[in-house]
Amino acid sequence: MRKYLLILLPLFFVTLSQLSAENIRGPVSGYLSLEGSRTVETKAEHLTGIGIEGLSPLIQGFKLSVLADDEMEIYRNSFALYLYKNLNTAFDTETGSYKGSQALMRFLTFTEDLNILIPLTDNHTLSPDRSSFILADRDNRKDFPLILTILPISKGIPDAAYNKMIRVELEPIFFEKGQLQLNIMNDKGEVLDDGINISIDNKSYPWPGGPYTLSAGLHSITIRSDEGNEESRSFTLEAGQILNMDHVVQYQLPLLTIETIEGLQVFLDEKLLSEKELDKPFEIQPGGHSIRFELGDFIISRDFVAEMQQRISITMVPEILLDYSE
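Predicted structure:
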């Protein structure tokens, strides 16, 4: 007897699995996804596919809506919305026959929108109200693609009702978070990967890196370069927003001021400076430099090092020597 039970039980489970799959047939109205169309006009007994292409970490779920329709109110509760999951094959707009298991059934009143909340993560905060239902209180991504169809549940419905267009919409529901995509470059448009440190809201983040996921609201970012340059700016993120921010590092080169007497020649790194160049401070490159002053046979020189953001002043007045002789 035990031998026969061991043989029959697997067959019994296979039979149950086969029975749970339902035939889903009808003309295809379209396919809803974030990457493609988010709105489809369908009819009763037509099929609409629903996919999760284009899903981002900022999305915690979908809101699937069948919109109210004044002309369909007379068929209140004569039709029901069905959602099917675990399809036997990938959804194709050219294919009108599938097998799948029923995920949800709801009567349609057409007097108000029917909203179905579909969580796409276990950490969702979706909560249904009187006008919405939740598909399943878990991560439903493995059940996609889904098929939506609207089927009659009563007799005597006139043919005109089957030809009415019914609008279905798919809308992402975001976490209260956004993302910052940061691009840092120099004044030549060259991307800077090294020598940069960033902090957002006084918290350090790796660079290069990103996109940076942050809470929705106002933020402050500080960008520092190894040369000592530091710049801060504020930005605002909305829920679900991906903000692209381009930042050009404004390097503050060393600023040199030279004061001397008229007639004294000044050479900076062996280049003779004109009086016009000496009239006001001018930028120089960071690093080692040499300066030389000449007046007739009088020559004096000195080496110095300039760093970013430094203001350097060099004053040269030849010393007057008095020689008293008897």
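Summary: The mean pLDDT is 88.
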